[in-house]
Amino acid sequence: MIGICWSLADPKVFTVAAVIPMCPGISAYTAMIMVVEISHLGYSEAWIETMITHFLKASVIDAVLSIVLWL
């Protein structure tokens, strides 16, 4: 019975759940790794720059996906 309900759902329901984690994945993962390295090994200008760059890239990708899927 649940399979019938799921088959009648709009395909966007499944697409959103699959696409949003995959697209910004590498950038978000790199930003998290930089946070761990900064907290473990100390401050480094290059690590801060890498963390902020990848965090902003992941945020922009998420925002664009949210806006596009909302339309």
From TrEMBL:
UniProt entry tagged with the keyword Membrane: yes
Keyword annotations of the record: Membrane, Transmembrane, Transmembrane helix
GO CC terms: membrane
Main subcellular location of this protein, as a coarse class: membrane
Pfam family name, one: ThrE_2
Domain Threonine/Serine exporter ThrE, first and last residues per copy: 10-67
UniProt superkingdom: Bacteria
Family: Belongs to the ThrE exporter (TC 2.A.79) family.
Designated name of the protein: Threonine/Serine exporter ThrE domain-containing protein
Species annotation: Serratia symbiotica
